[in-house]
Amino acid sequence: MDGIVVVAVIYGAQKRSCSTRIFRFCGRYVRKNMASNRQLVSDFSAGRLSVEAHIRERLQRIAKHNSKINAVVTNNPQAIAQAQAADHLRESGATLPPLFGLPLTIKDLYATAGLRTTAGFKPLAGYVPQEDAVLVARAQTAGAVLLGKTNTAELGSDIQCKNAVFGTTVNPWNGGYTSGGSSGGSAAAIAAGFSALDIGSDLAGSIRLPAAFCGVAGLKVTENRLPRTGHVPQLPQAERSVWHLLSPGLLARQVDDLRLGLQALLTARPNEMPTDSTVAPVSWQAAKHKGFLKIAYWDDFNGLPLCPRTQAALRQSIEKLESAGITVQRIRPEDFDFSDAWAAYGEIMGAEVGLGLPAWQRMAFAASAHLLPPSRFMMKSVGRGMRLNFKRYNHALNVRERLIAVLEQFLQQWDAWLCPVAPTTAFPHCKPQTRIAIGAASLPYLEATTSLVTPFSLTGSPVVSLPAGIFDGLPVGLQLVGRRWQDEALLDCAEAVECIVQGFQAPELPK
Question: Is the pLDDT of residue 31 over 50?
Fold first, then answer.
């Protein structure tokens, strides 16, 4: 790490081309110290590595360690056959796709043809879809080999990863701690080296929280950048009700792996019929490197406490960025009020998710949330949304538009806004009624976990969750927020930050 800082400081003294040089140095550092997905695809394509042999190694790793972690819940019986077909394709001399041979897992909220898709929901325990979700089809068209499905919270509705179908996924760093949710199986599978790429989804931090808790990289794409057709919710044969806030995304060990995956998902179109009219026709656009990087950061979210690990990770990351010659400033967008964001998010999420619930369940939740104290502001706002008050729902959509405009204007001056992912790091498995310790203080369950991610679900912004080090034995993640539709530029910025804060470190897996 010291070597990176020294080199970056030298470049930092040469302000004109600092960021471009850091990008190039970072790429060399990552490739030298970790096999990237891009290198794997290159080795497969050149015949230096057999796809079948590598997939067998991944499956053996799952067989050896998964019983202790419970990340992969359904194996794909066709994985070896797919790998063999990939090797035959290479031998034929055909043009190879961009994710050729790459080991892939899929969050168990996405439909997979011929492979059960349960969403961790007992009524779907035996459900086997006839068609792939759009992103699953795209990934396989791009050449990825599907290893299996990863565990999720029931219907993606918790920030811990547990359900009545498959049980609990544990954190690879400490089995007594949560892996996060709802993409907890995804993050744990990546951290444990079971797969190289996982397709997840994020409504209230469901990519960013598990990525931070397990120490991997996660990307929530701009809302409506990728199609969500075939994703639960909605339930099979049910009408769609969630029209805002939910974004697909990816989890991997490093930023360039996310870039490779996103580019493939945006370009691989396997004769698909248009099924999601809300998705904008924005194809992959390589970002143009600007001059010197400028990163804003913030650490005060209406007085919410941050745990000592999170404080240390943010402080050290800022110091490293400054030492590397990056412009870093503590600043927030004017008129971006977090209370407004939390209230609007809860109103929209509660209304849209609530429409998919039985009326009695929705009203019972709303009634119980109404009785909660003001400190439970996340739960109370969701409960208000479940009352389905059209006037309040419409007002929340207007607040959303105003906050999008404020954040977009702010980010015209900055390459990204750096914030903690959550007030806390991973915590011991617990019930949702439990207060989470935040240093010497504590916060209610949702407020301790989702309060720093939901504002950027509300704005639909692209966000990268990035590992920022291991503190007292647990990973800490920071999130970089970018401009809407500028996912490519955000990934470039995140890669520069990644090489300075060092990024992914592998956990020692339980025996």
Answer: no
